[in-house]
Amino acid sequence: MQITKKGLLKITVALAIAGLGLWDGAEINAHAAFDTGAAALKGAPQGVYLGSGTASNYFTIDNSVSTASGTNSAHLVDAGSPGGSKNSAIQISKAGSKQSWGSIWSKQQSFDLNQSETASMWIYASGEGSTSVGDGMAFVLQNGGTNVYSGPGESMGVWGVQNSDFSKTNMADMAIKNSWALEFDTFPNVTIPDQPAYGIFDNNPISEWSFAGSPTSFDVNGDGNSPANQTPIKDTHIASNYPGESSTYSETKVPYAYGKNGYGPYYYYTMKHEGFLDEGPTGSSKLSDRNWHHITIQYTPPTTAGGKGSMTYTYNDKNPNTGLPQPSTDYATVPIDPAKFNLADGQSKVRWGFTGSTGDATENNYVIFDQLPGQAQTEATASLMAKIDMNHPDEYVTVGSGSKQADSIPGGTDVKLTYTFGRTDGDEDWKSVNANLNIPSGLALSSGKITYPDASYTDSNNNQVDLSKLTTNSDGTSQSLPVSLANGGLTMSGTQHATITLYGKAKDLTSDLKGTPQLEQTSYFTGINAASSAKTPAFSITPKVNVKLAVDTFGDKGRLKVNYGSKEAARVVGVAVPQNPLSVSMEDITIHPSINGVAQSPENLMDIYATEMSPSLDYFSYEIPNDKLHPGANTISFYATYGSGSDEVTSTTVNRTVTAGTVGFGHTSGNMTFKPTILTGDGQSHMIKRDNDWELDVDDSLVKGSEWQVTAKTTGMFADGDNVAVKTPLDGSLTYTDAAGKTTELNNSASELIASGTSPSDETATTTNVAQNWTADTGIRLKINDNAVEGNYEGTIDWSVVNSVSPD
Predict the structure, then answer these.
(1) Can you tell me the mean pLDDT for 147-176?
(2) Do 527 and 602 share a domain, yes or no?
(3) Smallest Cα–Cα separation from 119: which of 242, 237, 296, 273?
(4) Last residue of some domain: 327, 354, 371?
(5) Which of 661, 690, 721 is the last residue in one of the domains?
(6) Are residues 234 and 318 in the same domain?
(7) Domain limits at 105?
(8) Is residue 355 domain-shared with residue 213, that is, in the same domain?
(9) Count of structural domains within the chain
(10) DSSP-derived 3-state class of residue 526
């Protein structure tokens, strides 16, 4: 079938539209809530390995705390490892363990108030069974040792606690001194004594249990110095303040109440909550809902001496299923006054850690750090690209995002996965980093390379990824590939980054036109002091295209007729059309030409691209040198191939005729004779006429506009004598008289122009009898002089026809 240019463009556009946007990315469901602490640890997000039990490179777990009784419940426990590296959690408290306390502190004072610092962690808080959940835990900065703790219950081990008889108390003296705390309060104290609603005014004496049942500081939101503006906090919450500062607490005096000491004044205290985040009522709390939640704490130092810095904490800012950032509006920023820590001159670092407690209500409290304060700040990204752009066949196009968005790729498509990870900031190097990659199950990898920050670095595997370690995960949706970096762990400093690049193809998975969904997959980059994760996008793999190639050539393009023997090459314009252009890289199509049955060297389609047909890339222009043509019709054949081996696709063969035009003599008279003549001896020369009509045909198949000429020359006429050693020349000569009457004697030294013509057509050959219009007085005649001797004479005329002028 002849394929016109108009038709090809229409097909190309239609296929390009059909190949994109066929499948929406599958939504990933969140994990179900973990009903037990053991289940929560098993399904924990990936973090940094901190140690086990009480042994840690980063923390001190101190039992010698004079303000607490019993054993410190804080310890390190093993956690699940979605990233393939060791993982551990800090356990502050345990469900079912009442009146417990826990504290864990950094070994060094490493949180620098003169520098930007970031702490990033996952937290889990939940009870088990039907028991009440409480009381919570707190992230604490403090200028002190590791043996500090304030008390049980609502204090969470850091805030001040009311004394048992509700007498006047300096709450700040009961708290951890020189500190700032961020609390995760799962048991809000909501009942604030409201005098005179209780008391002697209504003859209803207040006993000590009337004050919420136990000594405490009640949770309020509002101005701590103005109780009238305070609002009781009824929901679980996140908030912060300075535990050791009197301004954190507000005192209320009940003038006359009845308690165990009889009538008299009693006091209760409320605690002001800065940067308050409401996490919902206990029954639907976002703190104790049996799920992992992420929080990032970012400190910004003062910009002037003696000024204040700030602390921003953002809750639920990472997806627990992937470990990747997600938008969050659940955040607050509070001022931080370094003077509150009472640091010595020249000192700017404080200790950091966690405290927690239970009362009659209990819970599991876990913390998994993915970035430790005072350590490295890190990042990681992942991208998936595929060769699916027919207009740029050698380029990878971003899958799932970007300006050339593609949500689906056909089976057999070349793909590239790129993971970039590195250090962005912090006080320490990112140490001993290795990767555990999760690859979509629909990708078949063939090779991989590692690009280190130092380009001169070569590991024991020559910077190649060992694909023999690739295994299919039990869920069937992904493949796991651990990548050991730098012979056991890569350390990065400054803003160094490294890259892992994997190459392969999309598998041919389905005949369903909507394709096989490929879910987002999270990969992990874990060091001993920080961890980052990155995910590939969701996409689908559509059926592998059964590639077909249609090849054709054009009769109205190129140069299909040339003059044989000239310097001009013939040129054929053709097209190789894939069935689905989006699935075929044009540079992978090969054109196989032959000339008159003789195979020529194959040509890459892009190497012989027909520029005049731009912007379409499937046209080709093939030149045939003149010296490879024979005169007349030549058959030029083409077929195309794509792929290799068992996957090679071959088109049918198409032919195109190329004419190498010529000019030459066709039919001529068998004998050219002159009329017999009787010499009179009158001393005059005589012009002898032709005996009959001569025929001298010129066959012309030259390129239209080509000019040709016929010339003649002769050695003369000689007496006919077979046995004569020396032939006697005739005393006379052959002449040519043109239509204007000009007569020229023919000789052997120069060719005389006899006729000329111009090729009238590229389509058909023409024949011209150059003697047709000769008259009795024009054309070739014989001149005989008076001394001619009687006899029979014969001679030879050398006729020549030439292509005298070639058109541009």
Answers:
(1) 84
(2) no
(3) 296
(4) 371
(5) 661
(6) yes
(7) 37-371
(8) yes
(9) 4
(10) strand
Contact status, residue 680 vs residue 791, Cβ threshold 8 Å? no
CB distance 657 to 636 below 8 Å: yes
Burial of 97 (0-12, 13-18, 19+ CB in 10 A): middle
Nearest Cα to Cα of residue 98 among 146, 62, 131: 131
Question: In this structure, how many other beta carbons lie within 10 angstroms of the beta carbon of residue 67?
Answer: 13
pTM to 2 decimal places: 0.60
Q: What is the CATH number of the domain that holds 407?
A: 2.60.40.1510
Give the percent of the chain with pLDDT over 90. 45
CATH label of the domain that carries residue 611: 2.60.40.10
What tokens were used for 503? Answer: 């190459």
In angstroms, rounded to a whole number, what is the distance separating the alpha carbons of residues 73 and 131? 19
Q: What pLDDT, in 10s, does the model give residues 520-577?
A: 888 999 998 898 989 898 898 887 755 577 788 888 889 999 999 889 999 999 988 8
CA angle 503, 508, 511 (to 5 degrees): 155
The amino acid at residue 153 is G
Q: Is the pLDDT of residue 216 over 60?
A: no
Alpha-carbon distance 431 to 59, whole Å? 18
CB within 8 Å of 743: residues ≥ 6 apart? 735, 736, 737
Q: With contact defined as beta carbons under 8 Å apart, do 506 and 410 qualify?
A: yes
Whether 649 and 737 map to the same domain: the answer is no
Q: What is the pLDDT of residues 173-199, one digit of tens each?
A: 989 999 999 999 998 876 655 433 333
Instruction: Say whether both 96 and 159 belong to one domain.
Output: yes
d(CA 464, CA 447): 8
Residues contacting residue 345 through CB under 8 Å, at least 6 positions apart: none
Q: How far apart are CA 566 and CA 340, in angstroms?
A: 97
